[in-house]
TrEMBL record:
GO molecular function, one term: methyltransferase activity
Signal sequence annotation: none
Domain Methylated-DNA-[protein]-cysteine S-methyltransferase DNA binding: residue ranges: 6-67
Record flagged with keyword DNA damage: yes
Protein name: Cysteine methyltransferase
Matches recorded under SUPFAM superfamilies: Methylated DNA-protein cysteine methyltransferase, C-terminal domain
One Pfam family here: DNA_binding_1
Gene3D superfamilies in alphabetical order: Winged helix-like DNA-binding domain superfamily/Winged helix DNA-binding domain
GO-annotated biological processes: DNA repair; methylation
Keyword annotations from UniProtKB, A to Z: DNA damage, Methyltransferase, Transferase
Organism: Nonomuraea aridisoli
The keyword Ribosomal protein belongs to this UniProt entry's keyword annotation: no
Amino acid sequence: MESLNPFAERVLDLVERIPPGKVMAYGDIAEYLGEGGPRQVGRVMAVWGGGVPWWRVVHADGTAAAPDHLRECLAHWREEGTALRGERVDMRQARWDGRSADFQ
């Protein structure tokens, strides 16, 4: 397994701060951090994301990051009261801008 690098640490730290019921898209995370891009954030989540609330990181259209984990995502989203539109997150209501993250 790859070793955790400073960028990965920042991504995971931010994901841990996303409030229950809110989400960020891969690109939102990269933009907030001011580095990397959606693919780099996706790589971090694929390798190290299991220990953070990974279901709060979604595609920009609100779909689950890992389609094979859709059931698990839906269970977490419903439990947390995340706004949904069918089987995807309602990004207008649930997208988090990171303002209360006390980060960086």
